[in-house]
Amino acid sequence: MGKRILLLGAPGAGKGTQSKQLAEKYDIEHVTTGDALRANKDMETEYGTPRSFMEKGELVPDAVVNEIVRAALEDADGYVLDGYPRNLSQAEYLTEITDLDAVLYLKVAESELVERLTGRRVCSECGTNFHVKFNQPEEEGVCDECGSELAQRDDDTEETVRERLSVFEENTAPVIEHYRDEGVLVEIDGEQTPDEVFDDIAATIES
Ligand code: ADP
Ligand code: ADP
Ligand code: ZN
Fold first, then answer.
1. 79-88, pLDDT tens digit by residue?
2. Long-range CB pairs of 119-127, under 8 A, 24+ apart, other chains included
3. In the CATH scheme, what architecture does the domain 4-28+77-206 have?
4. 184 is in an annotated binding site
5. Residue located nearest, by CA, to atom 4 of ligand 1
């Protein structure tokens, strides 16, 4: 059975960057509600489209994301879960549907998060993350992995970033405290270089 890893952290903490590498190293699925929702932005649900919530930086309703995660975990032999749970009710649902082998929290200061998110650039084809300062592609605006064009996410503007960080404080910080109270949370210093962060995560998973 593959490892079941939960990666928690604020928007911009480096969850996507680390998850991609973890999925490769441990041969597990990268399950990310953010990517799944972006691929289905205009899907009609009884609550409206995911887009209507995402462009404001608000959470998409639990029923929609819970179902995405349930279906993805059912099919996975080991996974790194990124972007979920984002509130206590999602955390409760997750406990009902799976066990976890590791719960990691990537800790990064708020001022650093704003700079990371507003400078983030994402490949429009393969989804690889870059940063205009911290993780520059070899050629400006072009993906190193596949040569496609890089774009800024609609919700990576300063105003929406501030809203997302406040949604994180209100809804997701209690999730982190919940796992801390259970004694299973391992905190990782997310302000190191990506390689250093990865080494700390791998050491935790293997210990
Ligand atoms: P980031 O990587 O910056 O944290 P994500 O790609 O994970 O952002 O999420 C982008 C948006 O998708 C969120 O602002 C929210 O609107 C929606 N979203 C993603 N995951 C969830 C979730 N678990 N619950 C509710 N909404 C979510
Ligand atoms: P999340 O999925 O948690 O929102 P990302 O992995 O997309 O975070 O990272 C957000 C931005 O910060 C991206 O532009 C990424 O290239 C950059 N980044 C990721 N990890 C680091 C790091 N350790 N140091 C500096 N910048 C980073
Ligand atoms: Zn690409």
1. 999 999 999 9
2. 120/12, 120/152, 120/153, 120/156, 121/150, 121/151, 121/152, 122/150, 122/151, 122/152, 122/153, 123/148, 123/149, 123/150, 124/148, 124/149, 124/150, 124/151, 127/16, 127/35
3. 3-Layer(aba) Sandwich (3.40)
4. no
5. 11
